[in-house]
Specification:
This protein has 326 residues and is an all-alpha fold. The chain is built from 11 helices and 2 strands; from the N terminus they run ββααααααααααα. It has a two-stranded antiparallel ribbon. Helix 4 packs parallel to helix 7, helix 7 runs antiparallel to helix 9 and helix 9 runs antiparallel to helix 11.
Length: 326
């Protein structure tokens, strides 16, 4: 008998639950053409990863897009403040102290006669620098220590857990008042070092929990059975699947570190004049809040907007990377 030609009307597709279903010609053709495919594959039949799905969700999230635009603008201002603000933030004229908005000074002048607009723009550099470098330091130190403790376990895990408990018991602001009050340097490095010193335990616990969960998966056991070294298992198999929670926490913490720097500078133990910082400007404008509220409003608003943008970005990243929220 001649072989019967295949008819699309008789196409059969798996339901993904052990059964089958009949498909019409149009449905069968659609499944063949769909880039995602019936099993969630990507372009050219490649399976989609967590990161590709997360990026797809982020591009459709208006919260991510809005906060991302704000952060890009802040980074641009931090790198090239002179592009939107002329003059020096240290140039002050006491004859214009507490004056309102005027030509060249849309935000007015503070109690020392300094241009509030110029100082607000240049203050973004300090805040973003401290936030980014502190977050990088905390993420690296915390991730390495937490990953090693979670992977090897035993006595090292117990020791690290007790050390993190000790650091969690230290109030952050009080610790800053004690530690930074004896520092005479007027750079950002003591502030960054303090944040890394007290901030790594949080990231360490997140990384430890993620590694403990990831190392129990079958692909890790298979790699170990094939003779893969501990370093290869950590870097090639565990780290890519355990880094998502660390990224989420670090993104949200970045805004917290910016607020912490402003708080410490406001209290007089962080950055000190002649450094330009939103915390310094807020502290200097506080006594003149009745006569010159604009000197306090603008740096405070810039600080609040920056912290809010990073927190919103972290929330959007968390929603995209957490499979439970899909």
């Amino acid at each position: 008998m001649p072989e019967q030609p295949h008819e699309p009307e008789g196409a059969i597709a798996g339901t993904g639950m052990g059964g089958t279903m009949d498909l019409g010609a149009s449905e069968a053709a659609t499944l063949e053409r769909t880039p995602g495919g019936p099993l969630g594959t990507g372009p050219a039949g490649r399976p989609r990863s967590l990161w590709s799905d997360a990026w797809r969700d982020l591009r459709r999230n208006p919260v991510f897009l809005l906060s991302g635009l704000v952060i890009v603008f802040l980074v641009f201002v931090s790198l090239w403040p002179s592009a939107i603000a002329s003059g020096s933030p240290l140039k002050c004229d006491l004859a214009r102290a507490q004056d309102g908005a005027g030509p060249g000074a849309p935000f007015g002048y503070d109690g020392q006669g300094c241009n509030v607009y110029t100082r607000t723009v240049y203050g973004a550099r300090t805040s973003v620098t401290v936030g980014v470098l502190a977050t990088l330091g905390v993420s690296v130190v915390g991730s390495v220590l937490g990953a090693l403790a979670g992977y090897f376990g035993g006595v090292w895990d117990s020791i690290l857990s007790r050390i993190t408990d000790i650091f969690f018991a230290i109030p952050v602001v009080l610790g800053g008042l004690v530690l930074l009050s004896v520092v005479t340097s007027n750079t950002v490095w003591p502030v960054i070092g303090f944040m890394v010193l007290l901030g790594w335990p949080q990231i360490s616990r997140i990384a430890r929990g993620s590694v403990i969960t990831a190392k129990q998966n079958d692909y890790v056991q298979a790699a170990r059975a094939l003779g893969a070294s501990d370093s290869r298992i950590l870097l090639r198999h565990i780290a890519p699947n355990a880094v998502a929670p660390v990224i989420v926490v670090a993104t949200i913490a970045l805004g917290t570190y910016i607020a912490l720097e402003a708080t410490l500078s406001y209290l007089g133990v962080g950055l000190k004049p002649p450094s330009v910082s939103w915390g310094i400007d807020i502290s200097a404008a506080s006594p003149y809040i009745r006569n010159a509220p604009h000197a306090l409003l603008w740096p405070s608003g810039a600080l609040a907007l920056t912290v809010l943008a990073f927190i919103m970005l972290g929330d959007a990243v968390r929603d995209a990377l957490d499979p439970k929220l899909r």
